[in-house]
Design a protein that fits this description.
The protein is an alpha+beta fold and 384 residues long. It is built from nine helices and eleven strands.
């Protein structure tokens, strides 16, 4: 039910809009029919008075016409040649006195009526009239309904686009999990070959070292496969030792960075005491590896130092900082580095930092920020 809540809301609003439209148009039709009936009755009285020779018949017809005008709901004020109100009808307020000129509000309302319609003036009197309630609401309701229909159209477009994006993400998540499943068989086979190499190279230190590195690479591939299995699933809520995770990532990359020409040093500094958060260790390690890998790419061909540190924040949180002394990020590009598809590398896909921020923020309720520095690039992962 929650999944289809936007569609239900839009459908409800559409029904309300159509219902209000039908109700309002019916009221307009009834008002127009009543106005036509009054006009016909008025014409009948005038025509009858013209043929009636009885004394006072004409005056009575004029009184009847005056009453019909009042019943039509038209706000009006009659003024004499000096501009003094002498009669009024259907005003939005009740005058304090039966004498029209006794209430200053009546005189002030003449200007309001004249802004709506020009007065009807003859040599003796002037009739100032406004708009009937029907005309007033005709100027408000249709534009309001048009705006509501436009908002509903935009909401429907947004829902369709959101559902399309969700379906596409679901498809990619399914493909990622299937790829992880397919990787399981060759990884198991490679693990078996490594065991065979370890057995046959027991007396060869070089072969043993090669087997250890190969084992580490296979373990990493296995962890990567598990990461893809997590895509599209609810993240775990397990205790995660940040210090152990940082050491594991640092040790993995230390064995694979240049140590002679353009050497890169990876240093780790931990806060006092254990830092433990609740989250998904596989996903958090993935985000940390993205930051370290970006730092390594930035220093490729020039060497340098990467400092990874953990700290306990005063506001009851933990921080992992990855800092390098590479060329840094140009100021004009700092606002775009977390955009999906944006990369400063020619062969980059531009999804690493976007993925890392999504893991930290959406899956763990934390923040991944770029810290302003004078040299290199520094990223902070802040977890609560």
């Amino acid at each position: 039910m929650r999944r289809h809540a936007p569609e239900v809301l839009v459908a409800t609003l559409i029904v309300l809009l159509l219902g209000s439209y039908v109700y309002y148009t019916q009221r307009v039709v009834r008002s127009l029919r009543a106005a036509a009936a009054r006009s016909s009755a008025m014409y009948s009285r005038v025509y009858r008075a013209l043929g009636d020779t009885t004394e006072g018949a004409g005056l009575q017809a004029l009184l009847d016409i005056s009453r019909d005008v009042r019943e039509q709901g038209v706000p009006l004020i009659v003024t004499d040649s000096a501009g003094r109100p002498i009669a009024h009808a259907n005003l939005p307020f009740d005058p304090r006195d039966t004498v029209a000129d006794a209430d200053p509000r009546v005189r002030a309302y003449v200007a309001v009526l004249d802004r709506q319609n020009p007065p009807v003036v003859d040599a003796v009197l002037a009739v100032h009239y406004g708009e009937t309630p029907l005309v007033y609401w005709l100027g408000i309701i249709p534009p309001l309904q048009a705006v509501t229909a436009l908002l509903l159209l935009l909401a429907g477009f947004f829902i369709i686009r959101t559902r399309s994006d969700a379906a596409r993400e679901h498809l990619w998540a399914g493909m990622a999990r299937e790829s992880a499943h397919q990787l399981g068989t060759p990884l198991s086979s490679i693990g078996g070959w490594i065991e065979l190499l370890e057995e046959r190279g027991e007396r060869d230190p070089q072969a043993q070292a090669m087997a250890r590195h190969m084992r580490a690479d296979v373990d990493r591939l296995d962890r990567v496969a598990h990461r893809f299995e997590r895509i599209g699933r609810e993240p775990r809520r397990d205790p995660v030792d940040l210090g152990a995770m940082v050491d594991r990532v640092a040790n993995y990359f230390r064995a694979r960075v240049p140590t002679l020409a353009h050497a890169i040093r990876i240093d780790v500094e931990h806060a006092d005491g254990a830092l433990t958060v609740t989250g998904d260790s596989v996903l958090l390690e993935w985000a940390l590896e993205v930051l370290v890998k970006n730092a390594l790419d930035a220093m490729a061909g020039r060497g340098g130092r990467i400092a990874i540190s953990t700290a306990l924040l005063a506001e009851h949180g933990c921080r992992i900082r990855v800092a390098d002394d590479g060329p840094g990020i140009p100021r004009e590009l700092r606002d775009r580095i977390f955009e999906p598809g944006f990369s400063t590398k020619q062969a980059g896909w531009g999804i690493g930092l976007s993925l890392a921020r999504r893991i930290v923020s959406e899956n763990h309720g934390g923040r991944l920020v770029l810290v302003p520095t004078d040299r290199g690039a520094t990223f902070d992962v802040i977890l609560r």
